[in-house]
Amino acid sequence: MEAAVSQEDHRHADSFGRHRLRQDTFHVIALGTSGSYSSTPKNGMARIISNLEITLYDYFMQGQDVAIFLKLAIANEPQVPSKDLAESLFISQSEVSKSLKRSAESGLLHIADGKKRVNRSALMEFLSHGLKYVFPPAKGSMARGVPTATAAEPLKSRFLDDGDPPEVWPFIDGKVRGISLAPLYKGAPKAALRDPKFYSVLALCDAIRGGRTRERNLAIELLGKEING
Asked: Which of 44, 102, 157, 176 has the fewest CB atoms within 10 Å, counting from its CB?
């Protein structure tokens, strides 16, 4: 089948190749849903799409990857065990392993002799210029949750209240009602409430993702101090 992707393709794909892989996958899904491959059994097409979705999930950056970068950067400790990362971030150990592999391949993380070192300059470049495009803010209706972006410190005390509802991560134990904003990954609210410093950098990332120009610029400045501090 034309859009099939081999393991050899995966190993040698560069950034352009990754883009083409994404396009090919969408092409297969579109063909499958349009019925262009009329001779392909429906369950066979479903398996093809499912396998490609799993491949993409393992291959492209996920929100928890950013969380791991941030956690390692603010910890400033290269020998943080993967088990500790999983427990503190509410991510499974298998997801941490996949994330570390993706991050090492991207050049944002260097792993050697059991040490995990964040490429801080590259990370700040990505957070400053790429984060809002890779993980655009997904806002919803009013919900109870955990304040983020300019509704959380360190930005909250730096801006006057404009009267708009705060942005919150929807969370069952949240104490603030506001406009729901999907967090970078599912476990973010729990992890943030356990670690104030991690909470602050996640909130800054949300301001970069969806804030106004002044809010975004200040968030980048403050995040840079945390990442490089």
From this structure: 157
Please tell me the total number of residues recorded for the chain in this structure.
Answer: 229
Measured N-to-C along each axis, helices 213-228 and 196-210 cross at an angle, to the nearest 10 degrees, of 140
Q: What is the mean pLDDT of residues 94-102?
A: 94
Other residues' Cβ atoms within 10 Å of the Cβ of residue 190: 16
What is the token pair recorded at 99?
Answer: 């994330």
Q: What mean pLDDT is reported for the chain?
A: 81
pLDDT of 22 higher than 50: no
The two three-digit tokens of residue 149, written as one number: 């972006």
Cα four-point dihedral sign 19, 22, 25, 30: negative
Structural fold of domain 63-129: Arc Repressor Mutant, subunit A (1.10.10)
Residue 215: other Cβ atoms inside 10 A = 18
Q: Is the dihedral of CA 189, 222, 219, 135 positive or negative?
A: negative
pLDDT band at residue 77 using 50, 70 and 90 as cut-offs: confident
Angle between the N-to-C axes of helices 93-106 and 63-75, in degrees from 0 to 180, rounded to the nearest 10: 80
β 109-112/167-170 pair status: unpaired
For residue 42, how many other CB atoms are within 10 A of its CB?
Answer: 9
Domain limits of the chain?
7-59, 63-129, 132-228
Distance CA(153)–CA(220), nearest Å, equals: 14
**Rounded to whole angstroms, what are the CA distances from 124 to 66, 163, 199?**
11, 31, 17
